[in-house]
């Protein structure tokens, strides 16, 4: 971890934090999801740097060490453009996790000549359009609760940032979609005595907690949970770049209505024809932290194939 360097890129009056390691000519950019930050890529960054690549992992605006926008409620997917951290590089590999998958693939659609390959974890490419999962799931679906302005803020506000991250990691490491009863909030779904996943240490939790104490959750709740209805002017919805999807077999996202069939039937390849799909048998939604050696092996094989 000590070899990872930290810098800030100024854009639109905000400082954006970027973690960086390696001196190779080939650049790999890692895009985190929620409740993650650059730190969630710590294992992969070291691995690709040791293999001769340059690894870059930004914190999105309002996440981790990056400045929050002046009005977090107006933050959007359009605003979290990865051009900020890629502007110095003509060609890159992009690795996206969770909601980081959307900007990863959208960048590949907008700037195909600059993308050598796209690897995603936990979420496949989904074409732009309304998110309809909440129409098929109970009212207590975590997504529905968190997209309601003020509700998650009140729920999270009862706890310190470290406990919020702890609870989300526990919930999102399960095989079932987090759905609260009508008489409880999402944070109430985790007992204080519930242990952390064995691969997530107290030291890791301290790192996350400290960074979310700085950033809070205002921007993180707006993007992604209250921004999925945005419209994008994409030139196409077919990604031609070589792509890799890594899915943990125990990832709760398989339980989203239609998701498992969309992936396993190969329907996703209509939009990403050069897609390879790999499954990690015991992997959860945090497969890159749970099984870092396996994920590193899969990523490096993909990178070397398309370098």
From TrEMBL:
Protein name as it appears in the record: AB hydrolase-1 domain-containing protein
Gene3D superfamilies to which the protein is assigned, alphabetical: alpha/beta hydrolase
GO molecular function, one term: hydrolase activity
UniProt source species: Rhododendron griersonianum
Family under the similarity heading: Belongs to the AB hydrolase superfamily. Epoxide hydrolase family.
Pfam hit, one: Abhydrolase_1
Domain of life: Eukaryota
Keyword annotations from UniProtKB, A to Z: Hydrolase
Keyword Hydrolase carried by entry: yes
Domain AB hydrolase-1: from-to ranges: 27-256
InterPro entries, sorted: AB_hydrolase_1, AB_hydrolase_fold, Epox_hydrolase-like
């Amino acid at each position: 971890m000590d070899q990872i360097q930290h810098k800030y890129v100024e854009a639109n009056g905000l400082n954006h934090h970027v973690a960086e390691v390696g001196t190779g000519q080939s650049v790999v950019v890692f895009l985190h999801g929620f409740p993650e930050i650059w730190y969630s890529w710590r294992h992969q960054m070291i691995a690709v740097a040791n293999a001769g690549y340059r690894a870059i992992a930004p914190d999105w605006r309002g996440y981790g060490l990056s400045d929050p926008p002046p009005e977090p409620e107006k933050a959007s997917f359009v605003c979290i453009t990865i051009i900020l951290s890629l502007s110095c590089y003509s060609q890159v590999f992009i690795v996206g996790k969770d909601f980081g998958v959307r900007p990863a693939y959208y960048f590949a659609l907008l700037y195909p000549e600059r993308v050598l390959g796209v690897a995603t974890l936990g979420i496949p490419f989904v074409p732009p359009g309304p998110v309809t999962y909440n129409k098929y799931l109970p009212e207590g679906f975590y997504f529905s609760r968190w997209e309601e302005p003020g509700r998650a803020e009140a729920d999270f506000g009862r706890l310190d940032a470290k406990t919020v991250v702890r609870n989300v990691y526990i919930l999102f490491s399960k095989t079932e979609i987090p759905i609260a009863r009508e008489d409880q909030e999402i944070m109430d779904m985790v007992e204080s005595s519930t242990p952390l996943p064995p691969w997530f240490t107290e030291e890791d939790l301290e790192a996350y907690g400290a960074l979310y104490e700085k950033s809070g959750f205002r921007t993180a709740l707006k993007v992604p949970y209250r921004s999925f209805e945005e419209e994008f002017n994409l030139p196409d919805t077919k990604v031609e770049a070589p792509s890799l999807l890594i899915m943990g077999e125990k990832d709760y996202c398989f339980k989203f209505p239609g998701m498992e069939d969309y992936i396993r039937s190969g329907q996703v390849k209509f939009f990403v024809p050069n897609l390879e799909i790999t499954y990690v048998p015991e992997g959860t939604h945090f497969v890159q932290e749970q099984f870092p050696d396996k994920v590193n092996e899969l990523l490096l094989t993909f990178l070397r194939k398309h370098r």
